Amino acid sequence: MKYGFLAAGVLALCLLTACDDGRDAPFSRGYAAYQQGDFAAAHAAWKPLADKGDARAQFNLGVLYAEGRGVSRDMASAMRLWRLAADQGHMRARHNLALALISGETGIQDYASAREQLKIIADAGYANAQYSLGKLLSEGLGGPKDEAMAIAYIEQAAGQGFPKALYNLGKLYRDGDGVAQNEEKAAALFAEAAKHGHLRAQQRMAFRLAEGRGVARDDVQALKWALIAANQGAADSVLLVENLRQRMTEEQIEGAEAAARAFVPE
Amino acid sequence: MKPYRVASRPRYGAGIWLLCLIATLAPVSAVLAETRPGAAQAQQFIADLGAEAVRVLRQPNLSLEQRETIFRGMLAQKFDLEFIGRFVLGRNWQAATPDQREEYQALFAEFVLRSYSRLLGGYVDEQLTVQGAREAGQRDVIVYSRISGSSNQPVQSLWRLRLINGQPRIIDVAAAGVSLSITQREEFAAVISRNGLEGLLEMLRARTLTLSAEGPR
Q: How much is the ipTM here?
């Protein structure tokens, strides 16, 4: 524990000194407080910067309002701050603004505008935006449905290792939905999403490895993923764990348990 | 074995009758006890979650995002998220396709765990105090808790627990006297009436994909 606190101190110090000059110190101080879970201190550090027009501080302050951290949740204030930052070219702010237009919490719902904003960010290479835009295109929200473009954007996000895109693409290949059906490719995409910590992908991989569907049967790996998913509350994985244990040796079970314990999402 | 005779009752003392009564009622009480979590058990369950929040969310060598992801994963085991998710979707559950149901449950779990995890404290100097419990309906127990900290107003939360496969599980949370499940059910129904089930899924996607604070360059 002592070393943990030491590491935290070093991390905080790095955050404060990593900047090229003193100009960033209040921003870094806010971020260090945010990382420590002291959201009121983060707000106090970022507010004066945001008032002076600092786009990053405006974005972060917007996040505090959107999540109700250190302040009461207030989406109207969050959107106002993100708009100010987006007008200065801040991509993450533009992304969050687009998503706020989709969720429509402040009474302003505008899929078409969200789609336009997301296209700008997606084309700039942001995986989150590529995935979000792909889903809007596949559902025909905010404009015509375009399955081919939807898949293209989801593939771009998957190519960057975005877990939800990997999983989604895996389902498309599993079902042959807009692409040629390919169980092996589906399994490979689920495996990649599972490694990135996607719970449903972990569940799917557990069953696929147990059955040898689209992938060679491997009870040790199947039990590993089933244990990881079961530890996150996946009820069907709890049953699979029991079934797998009955057909495995003690040595195999221990191997799977050790691998599950050692798992850290990529 | 001699036949049981009512007339023999005066021959036994009150102590014997008390023992007989306990023996008769014991199985009944055991059955009743299994229908809902015990008040002490339920209070301990919430107190343990509060302690776990402190342990995980104050780990010094992980980023805030990593700590919160670990905590949500742990918390997922303590809720009956499938039950809550179906309740919140109401009659729209029946109309959903298997793919929509699967995506809804995954998005809903992510969405609610973000809200519920913050009601357990764990940040900086926050402290969760369990204040009591009472039975509710035939099967549930409600636990009262309060989070206090120097930087925020105290938050009062009520946790509704039920035995699921013999284990206590949270099936609803109320903050400031309002059930989150009922609030979400009304909110979701309004979204579905405007934009259909796909509109609801899109809304949940948007709320769970919002980017978090960025660090220094």
A: 0.82
